[in-house]
From TrEMBL:
<keyword id="KW-0812">Transmembrane</keyword>
<feature type="region of interest" description="Disordered">
    <location>
        <begin position="333"/>
        <end position="364"/>
    </location>
</feature>
<dbReference type="InterPro" id="IPR000157">
    <property type="entry name" value="TIR_dom"/>
</dbReference>
<feature type="domain" description="TIR">
    <location>
        <begin position="15"/>
        <end position="186"/>
    </location>
</feature>
<dbReference type="InterPro" id="IPR047603">
    <property type="entry name" value="FxsC_N"/>
</dbReference>
<keyword id="KW-0472">Membrane</keyword>
<feature type="compositionally biased region" description="Low complexity">
    <location>
        <begin position="241"/>
        <end position="253"/>
    </location>
</feature>
<feature type="region of interest" description="Disordered">
    <location>
        <begin position="241"/>
        <end position="281"/>
    </location>
</feature>
<keyword id="KW-0675">Receptor</keyword>
<dbReference type="InterPro" id="IPR035897">
    <property type="entry name" value="Toll_tir_struct_dom_sf"/>
</dbReference>
<dbReference type="Pfam" id="PF13676">
    <property type="entry name" value="TIR_2"/>
</dbReference>
<protein>
    <submittedName>
        <fullName>Toll/interleukin-1 receptor domain-containing protein</fullName>
    </submittedName>
</protein>
Length: 364
């Protein structure tokens, strides 16, 4: 299934989901679909509703807006994978609900990977590190059971309460005697979600169909490992120079004819000309790099694990190079030189007596 290439509406002015709840769904058996059995995800749904309420109270979102997104069910007549992909591309905070089943779910791993790819692309292109994955203990899990991508997260679960850190949200929400601890923990989590949403959210991206990752990875372990590779490879890297952030400069000590070398001042004399504007060659190089980086950033946000693949080579020569070349050509239009144009030479016959032997005319 192809996903629209547009950035989800509202991502730029605050109507995108504040948080995305990623969890391992319980699949109902045939006997459960009659409605006689309880919903196996009822506690997760209640947790989501309570957190949504708390986040809404801490923000100024409109009344009709729901600050959270949860993959509740595949609804008839709706393109649910597309909605999940758009929410992943625009949400500000990612909340994985830790259970043993979560880290064996290919869908959960795909959601984590795509959000981590957004964070890595944001860090490479802006230079600012985004840490918008907040782990949530649904059931307590030792760190040794977590994949490296999860172990790399820096979050102190004790800040949500000792009972939560020891038991997880499932026990707090199920047992009446932990009602107060549950309310305090859910409120503390909501405050953390809002804080991260306002200060550490990655830039919105173009939606990517998360199900396409299933063709490249056989299990969740491979996807979580790929997410961990993103963290290791991007961390500490020099950020890319995003298109339009600052103009490119010629190398030190070089200049186009008729221009001053960048970083040096012309003599302060009223008789000498002022510094020339940025050269057309510099502008052309800037345009070329700007177009190329725009295309390359799109690829990295979608499929960074395939940089060395043949698909990437095809993408580069099919889209990146033509777009960059077209931008370069647009800036290489010839310009007439300043001042009066030189008079072109012309041929004129001299009188017969003045013509040299052979009768060739003089060039004047």
């Amino acid at each position: 299934m192809a996903v629209s290439g547009r950035v989800p509406q509202g991502a730029a002015h605050g109507s995108a989901p504040v948080f995305f709840l990623s969890y391992a769904r319980h699949h109902r058996g045939v006997e459960d679909k009659t409605g006689g059995a309880e919903d196996p995800d009822r506690w997760t749904l209640r947790f989501f509703d309570d957190l949504t309420f708390e986040v809404a109270e801490l923000t100024t979102l409109p009344r009709h807006a729901r600050p959270g997104f949860m993959d509740r069910e595949v609804r008839v007549g709706q393109d649910w994978p597309r909605r999940i992909s758009e929410a992943l591309a625009a949400c500000r905070v990612f909340l994985p609900l830790y259970t043993p089943r979560y880290f064996t779910s290919l869908s959960c791993a795909s959601e984590w990977y795509l959000f981590q790819a957004r964070q890595s692309a944001h860090e490479l292109t802006s230079g600012a590190r985004s840490e918008a994955i907040i782990p949530v203990l649904w059931l307590p899990m030792p760190d040794t059971d977590l994949p490296p991508a999860a172990q790399a997260l820096q979050f102190d679960h004790h800040t949500l309460g000792e009972a939560y850190a020891r038991l997880g949200f499932l026990q707090l929400i199920r047992l009446t005697r932990f009602k107060d601890e549950y309310q305090l923990a859910i409120h503390a989590l909501a405050r953390e979600v809002v804080r991260v949403a306002l200060s550490g959210a990655p830039q919105a991206a173009k939606p990517v169909d998360f199900t396409t990752l299933h063709r490249h990875f056989e299990n969740a372990e491979g996807l979580f490992d790929a997410a961990g590779d993103l963290v290791r490879r991007v961390g500490g890297r020099t950020p890319l120079s995003l298109p339009g952030r600052r103009p490119l400069a010629l190398p030190p000590g070089t200049a186009m004819p008729g221009t001053a070398v960048r970083g040096t001042a012309l003599p302060d004399s009223p008789t000498e000309p002022a510094a020339a504007p940025q050269s057309s060659a510099d502008e052309a190089v800037t345009a070329y790099v700007r177009a190329a980086q725009t295309k390359l950033t799109e690829w990295f946000a979608r499929r960074p694990h395939e940089i060395a693949s043949a698909d990437f080579d095809d993408f580069y020569f099919r889209e990146v190079h033509p777009a960059a070349k077209a931008a370069l050509v647009r800036h290489l239009t010839p310009h007439a030189p300043d001042g009066p144009s030189a008079r072109p030479p012309r041929l004129r016959s001299l009188p017969t007596a003045e013509q040299p032997p052979g009768g060739a005319p003089h060039v004047l």
